[in-house]
Design a protein that fits this description.
This protein is mainly alpha-helical. The chain is built from 33 helices and nine strands. The N and C termini lie far apart (77 Å).
Amino acid sequence: GVHLHQREDFLIFLSQSDCAYIKLLLNLFPPAEERGEDMTELAVIIKTILLLNDPEIIEYVTSDAPTFESVCAVLEYDPELREKANHREFIRKCAKFRTVVKMEDDELVAQIHHLFRVTYLRDNVLRPTMDESSLSTLVSLAQFTQSDIIKGVITAPKVKVAGAGGVASELPGLSYLTKVVRLLAVEIDAIRTFISGEDESNAAGPICQNPTIEEESGGTTMWQQHLAPQDSSLSSRHIRRKGCLMFLKELFCKARVSLQQPEKDEFIESCVSNSKLLYLLGAILSDPNVGVDEQGTALEMVSVVAMHDPCVIRRHCLQGAGTAAESSTNEMFSCLRPDPNDHREVIFICPPNDLLLSILFVMSTATDAGILLQTSEIIRIILDTDIVGDQGTSLNGSFMNEENDINAMNSQNIRYDTGSEEQNSFLALFYDRYIQWLVAPFQYKMFISKSILPLLSESNQDESFSAINRIRQEFKHCSASEEKSLTSVAGCAVRSSFTLEILSFCVRAHVYRMKFFILRTRLLGTILKMLCQKAPHPHQMSSGGKCLKLASLKFLRSVLSVKDEFYHRHIVQYNLFAPVFDAFRITPVGRNLISSAVLEMCDFIRTENIKSLLEYIVTKHLTKSASPGEKSLEDIANPHVDTFAQLRRTHEENIGMHLDPNNEEGNPGNDGTTFNGRPAPVINKKALEDQRKYREAESEDSYFNDDDDDDEVMGPLPNDENASSLPAMSDTASLLADVSSLE
């Protein structure tokens, strides 16, 4: 019931004389608490003042450490809390200002402390009983403070240097971000060198042995800098490496939500272009000994860069490949591709300076669902080159209208580069050197080495790749069970499902390149074999197994959505629908996603009238089963849906007659109809006899007109009993010739 002008007068009264009235209220608290008096009324008054959302009052409460502690002490007696809070004990004993590098900028330290007070007041003191709208001033103040902190971290301070003649000059020093990134590089190199068996003392610079504690100017002991252990032991190095990663992750997350677009561009430029941060993140991801928390931290930073502008990562990968190509031969790149031994086993050794290969290393070896989700989203964003086809034509009218997940992804605030030359160069690099590792877990048994390589430099790059080649050559001529330094990668249905999601995206986004890769490697048949993995009982199938089978069917569905005849002939030639229908037979129809996915796929083939697949499915799989006790696909599905019956009917309409099961010669049925329900034409016996003689004479003439060289051109038919009579190998050869001419 208070008018607006009365509220403004009250705020002026509270703010005058540097909030003198609030100081008097807070001075009442210590003696009253000592006497054991009721503090609820004082707590309600202080809380009501804070909820007025006056910026000057909030700034006064959070800018001074003793005042902030007094406010928290009063609000411990908030009557809306179910039990008394204990803010003072947390601030004095639990809250610590941890750093890995001593922060010497007093202004930056004060801003960090100010941000802590604002967020603690918002999230811990007032949030349990208030909604977001009541804390708008605190939210705005936190965002502005975060922006100031980020600028202070990335800005290099001016350092006074004595010049000639005693004249002092100012030179730019090192920003705090640069110091942290350099320390991260030192710790990563030292840890990798130590694990690889070399002397640790030769891998790191001097580090002081005693931790430094810097107190705030106020003199209170609760706002000290607690440095990480500064000795040279391996455990201390792990702590410092994790501390650097956690600081950088916090910095990236704050920048993503607090900075405006121009400031965010400057921040990404400072973090990526002016330092080797992406190389260091690749070294973290390529280390099999790194824990899930550090992997997630590195992926979070890569995700921020990719969501901001994916061309930054693409350009980084192209620059790395260009530098390596200039300094080495193609033998270096051949050692990075999968090279299986006689037992179809392959070892994945990832160089630490290749960010994209490091991301694929995580995708091929990780088992944590959260890590796999982060990694798959990063790969998908990097590969989404503005939804442009390989020939430079937009594909918005084809797969984007059929796949809602791509539209949902484009609805996010993601910027894309427009340089088609850079996009094509990156895609050529990916499909030449990297996609093989994405599909390797489906083709081979994977192993990783327990030993890791030190960080690559110009001096040891050739030596490191020689070591990789030596390990791979030794592995190629022996069994992995004989090598104690290798660890097998356990199978993971969730990991395979995420990988299939990426491949399905590539089929729709990179139509021509992915078609060439699938037909060359026969990847589709390899993936569909996973549908034949039977559980003891369909109801006992694990959730991961169901997810993997659904992902396999989605991959096939993506191939069909392209509506390319090369894919159709490939499916017919290798009988790739056999495992699909086998999975349909062993899975109960009704209330089942697997059978529903198969039926939807068949319905898509029917509605799109893909004639080659219609003929293949009807003649190959919809025939009556040879076993007397086994039902046909139509018998299994008919109690629920008539999809297969409609499939057969569409095929019969395509060939021009409606076959009656008891009348295979195409004569009129019992109801007097032959095709599409229309009356059959009346043909007398003489006309039928004339047609028979004409067909016999035509067949005799065609025998002499046939060219004997046709059989040599077409080549022998496939020996596989399940193979189709289509000359698909000539189709594949023509596709390879077409691709080579375009490339």
